[in-house]
Specification:
single chain; alpha+beta; 4-stranded antiparallel β-sheet; 7 strands; about 40% helix
């Protein structure tokens, strides 16, 4: 079992100026300054945890980890604002989930991990674009859509505001 989700109600509201500039805001500001929220992580082997993250940065790290897992490599989520790390280490068709702050490992299947990342990313982008349609015009949004790949093509209409 693997659960990765964010609490929509916990997302900080961007300022009026940030909202007005969403179509042209540079990637690093979107990743590290905008859209901070509480995230829930749960897996077989450890209790449910909640922590606050910049949602887009967390999403990037998860998508890069999913790409690595698909390629037969290990994945890693790092947190720019701290030295906290989550490693996803391949173990046959399963993954060990190692968190730098807790020695208790978690585990899930690789397919389960890929599906959880896809759900998290789709949910977060649908929420953000639903509240802030101008984000769809930002190159960062297009980059994330490309990173998500064809698995979201059926959802693309909801994600691009059409």
């Amino acid at each position: 079992m693997l659960l990765i989700e964010f609490d929509h109600d916990s997302m900080w509201e961007p300022s009026e100026r940030q909202v007005a500039d969403l179509g042209s805001t540079v990637e690093w500001k979107l990743r590290y300054v905008h859209f901070e929220a509480d995230v829930t992580l749960a897996a077989d082997g450890f209790d449910t945890e909640n922590f606050r993250v910049p949602v887009l940065d967390f999403m990037y790290c998860l998508l890069l980890s999913a790409r690595a897992i698909r390629a037969g490599e290990d994945g890693r989520v790092t947190f720019t604002e701290s030295d906290v790390v989550i490693d996803f280490v391949r173990d046959g068709s399963d993954l060990k989930i190692l968190r730098s702050w807790d020695p208790a490992p978690g585990h899930c299947g690789t397919d389960e991990f890929i599906a959880a990342v896809s759900r998290f990313t789709t949910d977060a982008l649908e929420f953000i674009t639903g509240k802030y349609p101008a984000f769809c015009k930002n190159p960062t949004f297009q980059k994330l859509m490309t990173m998500m790949g064809p698995s979201v093509s059926s959802n693309h209409g909801r994600l691009d505001g059409s």
